[in-house]
Amino acid sequence: MEKAREDFLSEAQELVDSLSRDLLVLDQQTRRGDSDPELVNDLFRAIHTLKGLAGLFGAARMAAVSHELEELLDDLRLGRVELGVKVVDLLFRGVELYGLLLLAEKGEAPEPTRVVEEFLFRLGELTHQGGTGGASQVAQYEIDSSILGVLTEYEEHRLRTNMKAGVSLYRIHVALALTTIDTALDDIKAAARPLGEIITYLPSGSGSDADRIELDILMASHADLDGLRAAFRGLDVAVEAVKKRGGGDSSAVARSAQTPDPPQSPARSSPAPVPAAVPDDGLDEAVVTPWPADVALAPVERAATASLGVAGETTGSGLTLPPAFPPVGADGAQGQRDNRDLSLRSVSQTVRVDIRKLDNLMNVVGELAMVRAAMGRMTERVRAEPQLRAWGSELHRLQRTFERHLTQMQNGILEVRMVPLGQVFEKLARVVRQISREHDKVVNLVITGAETEIDKLIVEELSDPLMHMIRNAIDHGIELREERTLVGKPAAGTVALNAFQKGNHVLIEVEDDGSGMSPERLIDTAVKRGLLKRSEAEELTTREVYNLIFLPGFTTRETATDLSGRGFGMDVVKTNIAKLGGVVDISSAVGIGTKITITLPITLAIISVLGVEVHGRSFAVPLASVEEAITFDESLVRNFDGREALTQRGATLPICRLSRLFGLEDQASPPGESRARRHAKPCVVIASVGNRRLGFVVDRLVGQQDVVIKALGKSLKSVRGFAGATELGDQRVGLVLDVAALMEEFLASDKERISEGARAR
Amino acid sequence: MSTLVRKRHDRAAARRAADIGKRVEYVTFALAGEAYAVPISRVAEILKPLPITPVPRSPRVVIGVMTVRGRLVTVLDLRRRLRLPESPLDHKSRILITDTGEERIGLLVDEVMQVHRLGESEIEARDVLGGDPEPYLAGIGRPDGAVLILLDLRPILES
From CA A509, how far away is CA A500, in angstroms rounded? Predict the structure, then answer.
């Protein structure tokens, strides 16, 4: 039961994500002034599925919101509501609301009752406005009223939209063998797609041939008659233009004359069009013309082929598909089934997995690696015995194979953990849109490298820092439109989000073409906020000046805006990135723009560490933050103001004795330790995070290895300075240092010391 | 005569069974000479002590961390937690592993003894000694003349 609920939540989340993606596309289209009816249909379907899910799991608010959104999208589909910025805004709002509702379902947030009511109210306002007509254009074409009469509301809307856009109408007549109708129709659709839109498929002809069916396809296209004929060459179809009224005799009329008069059966009253909802007058006549009985196959065909049919099939609102038509031909039913198979197949190719399961697998791999090491030692022993040599080599071979497969397995699991950065970039695209609108700035977001893959856990943690950076870029970086035009920049600002892989790291750049950061202004601000002394400022390098923006409380704003200005955003960025073992770098040029680069390890699951020993205890330092290790010479230690430091390459290197920091000095050493200490070769492991450096004094270096890192349990949450623990072989656990946290703690105990190195230099 | 005895015996047994009520299995262990017990359902496994890595700066009750089949376990010294005098590990020492749902925690005890099935009537309320009992005290178990201090693990693991 719980499992089912989890599935519901993750499936709903996925749907919301895809909604968000589609909306972004729709937004762009709306601004360009065109719209893809397929996209609106996609949105409609996604919301409909959400509604079903929500209903199934008793998420009443979500179901209510979905229901109303569904109505709105339906109105959009049918052209009752005009697609515009306002509507798109409301849809975006809906996606946000889904986010809140899902959080509430997970119990991580209160039910957003008020927000939901407000949203429903606004939706209601919009959907009950009613629509705009447009029948006059339809009327100017010679479309037989019997055809108009059988168009569904949706098809009619598409017809009208196309006519409004001045697109020509064509009738394509085909005769298809029932046995091959699916593939033949697919061919026709494929040929038609690049040229325009198929509005409807109408059965025609006498129906005397039991093996063949004749269809009239009504198509809207920009192409001329010759172009269409060329496109359909080889498909055995007859293309003719639908003439404008007054253009002489229309074949449509002639054709309709062939169809027998509709019998007056009571079932007639139910079929498709629901024109009552459309305030059109020109169609009244059409409405009363019933659909001929002998062509009942058509709607089934439509269900199988036109996207509209798929939507209608699942809505349950009885909107598009006349319920009176049972599937007639076996082929029609087959078409439907194929469609369904297709969608099922595409779904089943991916599996959702709880990341903890992958962690478990990774643990098992770690255990196996341990077994392998033990087996390796055994093998060596066996090989050393002369009389067992043959067995020894055999064992050795087996071991090598085992090792190879183990590595493959480890890589395989790591690969599964990888997700494209596009996941987080999509969310950011929404943020950009929202912020730039709020700020009345036009900002283009250019994304490259969205396919770059990184550990799932890292991706989760990235959205906040990246959002802050993007906010900053738009709020502080990109200038107002007038300013930009004044200095000859394009009115629309650009924020680029680039990602790429570089060795074992992934680099993400957030780059804007805004005003850049002026070092003088940054220093002035820092001094004004009491974060820096004027005298210290002169000694800072440009890089250090830029890094001032990471100080908590640093802001160039006098008052905080909605977006930024409280002065903690960049601090959050730095802390979060450091937690992931990443580094942030800034470069900027006044008037040209700012680029912030984040360097991240590709995965958190396996990290390279440098094993060290302190007072007989094993620790591991993530190699990502180790610059180098040098031998420690006690006599070179200088004391500055109660802090110890070494001079290394002409610069001051503050040092931290881990044994003292961890309070190990006054503790009894583990057995065997005294001997080990005598053999100790004290070293300084020089670590750097961002632009800070610190030397950790250790008793001995053990060596480098790749380890699986495990988080410390909740009962050790309060213990700072460790990123986790790892098995170092022979069942001993080594603690992995959280270098960033230790540095923070050791160096930044008083705020005046911005940079130990810079001050002493 | 014998039937009468048997009848009386049966009646007594029936009454006793009814009195005892629902039975719960407890695993009992020794700490500083006293017998303690926790519901066996809370104990995932019982291990001989493995190498434990101390964690600097951790609360005093934490002995350290160890791995069990690839999973990290935080080990607490139950003596320290219950403010009993400390004693070194010996061959009888055991670690009870319990899963809080969020993490695995090991509890170091002096010795694991046996499993008792306790009925409701064999458990005295936690305030039987009067006063304001420690939150981790769940009651006193009295199976067949023995005295067991029943522990509630949740408050023990929370602090």
Answer: 9
- Taking CA–CA distances from A734, the nearest residue in chain B reads B53
How far lies A169's CA from each of A65, A221, A243, A284, B107, in Å? 38, 6, 8, 22, 80
| List of chain B residues whose C-beta atoms are within 8 Å of the C-beta of residue A730 | 51
* 8 Å CB contact of A731 and B51: yes
- List CB contacts (< 8 A) between A664 and chain B: 56
Residue A158 has a CB neighbour count (10 Å cut-off) of 23
Whether residue A558 is predicted with pLDDT greater than 70 in this model: the reply is no
Q: Which residue among A364, A664, A721 sits closest to B70, beta carbon to beta carbon?
A: A364
User: What tokens appear for A495 in the block?
Assistant: 């924020």
DSSP labels, A553-565: T--S-SS--SSS-
Give the span between the Cα atoms of A434 and A92, in whole angstroms. 9
Judged by a CB distance cut-off of 8 A, whether residue A560 touches chain B is no
Helix (H, G, I), strand (E, B) or coil at A276: helix
pLDDT digits (tens, 9 = 90+) for B53-90: 999 999 989 999 998 877 889 999 999 999 899 888 88
Task: Report pLDDT digits (tens) over B6-22.
Answer: 666 666 665 555 555 67
Do residues B130 and B18 lie in contact, with contact meaning Cβ atoms separated by under 8 Å? no
3-state secondary structure of A612: strand
Strand residues in B9-153 grouped as ranges (E): 23-31, 34-39, 45-47, 62-68, 71-77, 94-99, 104-109, 111-119, 123-124, 137-141, 148-151
- pLDDT of A676 strictly over 70: no
d(CA A158, CA A201): 13
What is the secondary structure of A459-501 as a DSSP string? Answer: HHHHHHHHHHHHHHIIIIISPPHHHHHHTT--SSEEEEEEEEE
Cα–Cα nearest to A233, from A170, A172, A305? A172
Q: Which of residues 702-721 of A touch B (CB under 8 A)?
A: 710-716, 718-721
Residue type, A71: E
**Cβ–Cβ contact B55 with A under 8 A:** yes
CA distance A570 to A526: 14
For residue B61, give the chain A residue with the closest CA.
A715
With vertex at residue A625, the alpha carbon angle to CA A738 and CA A724, rounded to the nearest 5 degrees, is 25
Give the per-residue pLDDT at A731.
Answer: 67
Chain A contact present for B70, CB below 8 A: yes
Closest-CA distance, A360 to chain B, in angstroms, reads 8
**Tens digits of residue pLDDT in A159-196:** 777 777 777 778 888 877 777 777 777 888 888 877 88
A630–chain B nearest CA distance, Å? 25
Q: Chain B: residue nearest A665 by CA?
A: B56
- From A724, which residue of chain B is nearest by alpha-carbon distance? B72
DSSP codes joined into one string, A88-135: HHHHHHHHHHHHHHHHHHHTSS---HHHHHHHHHHHHHHHTT-----H
Q: For the ranges A19-33, A402-416, A657-671, which has the lowest average pLDDT?
A: A657-671
> Is A738 near chain B, with CB under 8 Å?
no
For residue A454, the surrounding DSSP H or E stretch is strand A453-455
Contact residues, chain B, for A718 at CB < 8 Å:
59
If one counts every other C-beta atom within 10 angstroms of the C-beta of residue A200, the result is 22
Give Cα A82 to chain centroid, integer Å: 28
From B26's Cα to the closest Cα of chain A, the distance in A is 25
Cβ-defined contact of A360 to B57 (cutoff 8 Å): no
Whether the model clears a pTM of 0.95, i.e. scores above it, the answer is: no
Instruction: Tell me the average pLDDT of chain A.
Output: 73
Q: Are strands A617-622 and A606-614 parallel, antiparallel or unpaired?
A: antiparallel
Q: Does B153 touch chain A (CB under 8 A)?
A: no
Chain A residues lying within 8 Å of B76, measured CB to CB: 715
A133 pLDDT above the threshold of 50 = no
